[in-house]
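Predict structure. Chain length: 146.
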Amino acid sequence: MQTVEDKVISRIYGRGRGWAFGANDFSAEFGRSTIDWVLYNLVAAGTIRHVCRGICDYPKFSELLQQKLSPDFDQLAQAFARKFNWRIQPSGDAALNLLGLSIQVPGRLVYRADDELPCCGFLLKSCRNDGGSKTCWMGDGVYIQA
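Prediction complete.
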């Protein structure tokens, strides 16, 4: 019989390196306190990395640099969307880059949301209202607009 930690780690390995996730991605199968304990142990062991409050990732490793790479911002945005039940999609240059239609790397990733975004002070760096559209900055060049 597999332990809870084995089940969680097999799901993380199944998604592959670079996957960003939160405790809510495992809440259908396990209790919240159990998930928090397992994720804490995996971070302490160095298997996964704590990116920001409530979000972890299974980091990619660069053979050239011989170190872990920074988190994928699209994966982080998708993890936030799952955490808060948002439906988001990339917008502007970010969409073109993610679709492979442009090699231009955008300086800021802008995502469109279909619902009102709550501003979580502990999570989002700043919010502003621009003529009926609310923009929330998650830090490091990632923006979500409703």
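Summary: The beta strands are 20-21, 49-52, 55-57, 61-62, 67-68, 88-91, 109-113, 126-130, 133-139, 142-145.
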